[in-house]
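FAQ
Q: What does a multi-component entry look like?
A: The components come first, one per line:
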Amino acid sequence: MGKDMGRYIVKRVLIAAVTLLAITFLLFLLMDLLPGSPFNNEKLNEAQRALLEHKYGLDKPFFVRYWIYLNNLLHGNFGISYVIAVDQPVSGMMASRLPITIRMGVQAMLIGVVVGLIFGIIAALKKNTWIDTIATICSVIGFSVPAYVFALFLVFFAAFKMGWFPIRFAIDQPVFSSILPTLSLSAYIIATMARYARSEMIECLSSDYITLAKAKGISEQKVIIRHALRNTLVPIITVVSPLMIGLITGSVVVEQIFGVPGLGQMLLSGVQNNDYNVIMAVALVYSFLYIVIMLVVDVLYGFIDPRIRVSGGKA
Amino acid sequence: MQDMNLNIPDVPAEKLTLVHRDPSDFHEISEVYENTSYWKDAALKMLHNRGAMVGIFMIVGIILFAVFAPIASARTYDEVILEHNFLPPRIPVLENFGIFDGVRDGVDVYAQREIPENVYYYFGTDSLGRDLWTRLWNGTRLSLLIAVIAVVIDLVIGMSYGLVSGYFGKTVDFLMQRFVEVLNGIPQVVLVTLFALVLEPGISSIILALLVSGWIPMSRVARAQMLKQKGQEYVLASHTLGTNSRKTIFGEIVPNVLGQVVTMSMFSIPSAIFTESYLSYIGLGVRAPMASLGSLVSDGYSSFLSYPYLVIAPVTVLAILMISFNLFADGLRDAVDPTMKEM
Amino acid sequence: MERERVLSIRDLEISFDTVHGKAAAIRGMRFDLYRGETVAIVGESGSGKSVTMKAVMGIISNNQHIDHGSIRYSWWDEKGQKRTVDIAKMSERDVRSKICGRHISMVFQDSMTSLNPTVTIGNQIIEGMLEHYKLSREEAKGRAIKLLEDVGIKNPEKRFKQYPHQLSGGMCQRVGIAIALACDPDVLICDEPTTALDVTIQLKILNLIKKLQKEKQISVVYITHDLGVVAKVADYVCVMYAGRIIEKGSVEEIFYDPRHPYTWGLLSSMPDLTTDSPRLFAIPGEPVNLLHEIKGDAFAPRNPYALKIDFEQAPPMFHVGGKHRAASWLCHPNAEKVQMPESLRIKIDRMLKGVS
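Then the predicted structure of the entire assembly, as tokens:
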């Protein structure tokens, strides 16, 4: 069992590593195709631009640049910023931003998962009652409406009209001023979680082993807690993937609206300024986070579900 | 229902005679089940699904507005009247009830600017005095266009990719799945942003962004369905009869996975509309004076706190549009295959 | 010895709400079960066999309603007093805590899916004991291992700790039986207990249930459409059609002297190795649509031997000798005389010869 599991993990890690490598190549290729250059400044003449491009090695052949970039990457070097903070290492810029984005994401995830699970499970248990209807309506809204719409709404009412919260994120008030952005981000997670939890739970409640548990004469609460809940929670781990996507997508715009100095904001300013290395670095970090979490989820799933655990992985 | 034959019912003898004179030659059955076909049954379930019906109703309403409002409007989406800038919404009839009456902060802006009584901007005007009502429904047209394109991309690329990958299996499947994994490893926002950057901003860049990754969820569903169908006997039969792969896929298998595939393509609509609005919002979508729901939100955002109506109108339509399509897709899934997972 | 009635169902009516309207699934059911006896309920899918027996266990889904009738269950309590309750009138919660598992329990069709995949075999067996008898875990484990031995599982200590997917189908079904017997019930309901199994294992499971039944003096209800199973295990047979019992009697009565045309059809469609006919007989048509109100006999449209009265008035239960009852107008003394199909006659004669 242990050996199979070990082999399974190694296999998954290898696939993830290859995927990441392919992603760096794809991103690098895309960056190369970008129109214009970071030195599009009209004050520069041809010769000056060529000089700059030579200085940063941009005139070398594609594969040479890619090789250099990969090499640097392995040493934690994401290159330097050309425009936003001239000649500053991108890794340094990210060092201060990454924790903010991650903290916000974790907060939103925690709130979203807990609240969403509760909503979904209650809706499933009260299926076809008004409670279920309301929960379903709320989750369709949360699932459909983009995070930035929630953000705008919260800014307008909770911050501007009511004045309960600051309109913008403040680094000296990291908890209080992060409440609104966190809520905007968690709406999608709550809704998605509730949808999944509800349908999983309903599926679970109609399964044969629940009927058997009832036939044994176990009380309703125990049937739910011992048999239904556990089997509902296991497949729900697979929702983490769409949730991560939602978080990353949301973070880009929500950070901009609340002025949160995080990765999403950095991506947008990189995009607006054609700052290659910045865009590249943020894209890579997002991809890395995403793939690592998927990997953890896969392995975790193997540990939790005894069917996969014993047979040594599904892949 | 008596156990004992104490009181055998008194029945006239002629009623106790056989209906069919020759029982060994009995074939016909007078009453059997009403034969409800798969699609008829699904349609019936849809009709009973309140959410789905609300969704359809709202989608039809929005389509009607998007088609007819810009035609009926006296103004065009790019008509600039600078002296009419930042007018609050004013709608006939409703203005008498204290809403949509052209008043901002207690001041009737229309009267203050000496705008004639018969001039109405239903949703107000933007910083250049363009009519938000016309721009909004023009933008909605774009979102609906994107919805159609998304479905086409889903069906053409996503479905084919998934079906082919699942059908051939082995090395083909392995390579195709690794490719999807790489594309999928880059969060969609990042990928879409990069692609929009590579191309000039505009509708074509949005479509290309959708082309890059919008079809992935559909290919997953199609592949899973294909793997399920492949094991069925009718596919084997078709193979044995020497039908070629293309005919087997499109002639035999597609009709059987159509329900799931159509449902899935409905789920891709809201995500496509979102992608467009996101790109336009961060300034990589359509360029002014063209309007889209996302670009309207983005334009209005700069003056959001002083003129919230500029954001509220497009955001509301966007939200209703997304909710309606999701409700519709949910209903379709419940009717076609309730066990289907959309992601 | 006086037969002691444990379960008696009277005039039971159960309906379902569907998208297409209200469906009457059980339409006036009458059923008795006596201590130590085995009754098989046969009928095609949708005839209401499972619905009735699940109602006995208080397992009723949200869209189901018991509209009418009673389900009386009698037992001797610890003080030696005879007690009777009407399960149809009890709340779901009460049935669950007082009846299910403890007095009446059930073996399901497919144990592969009816065992919880994430809970060990052992925990699934002792769960009921902990609930009903408040045993300690150690005591419960001891009993569970004894039970596993009883149902013929080797290496019970090891199996106790395993998960369902590590066991074969036949073994899962043995575990299903162990779970059902965990709390010494009086009544065991077996819902198609062998359909999911290989033929060789089927017989073993049936014999196991028979042996345990004798040891523990329990009453067994089989729900099945497999007449082969019925012939092997049952004392009495009830034939169900469209939510009603249309013929009942001892196994001999039903197999050798069937009276209802539907039972003729069922017996004719039973394959046997000695039949000369190359064709397999099937009852013509499909089951009735329970959404529509049924006038007269539900089987009449599919019945080659239908009488005119069948389309107008539902037949009562006619007494046809011994314990044999049939709800068919053909049993009316004044009815046109009809014989069972010739092929079935031959089949039965051959069976009788085989017996003697």
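Q: Is there any commentary attached?
A: Sometimes. For this entry: Residues 309-315 of chain A have pLDDT under 50 and may be disordered.
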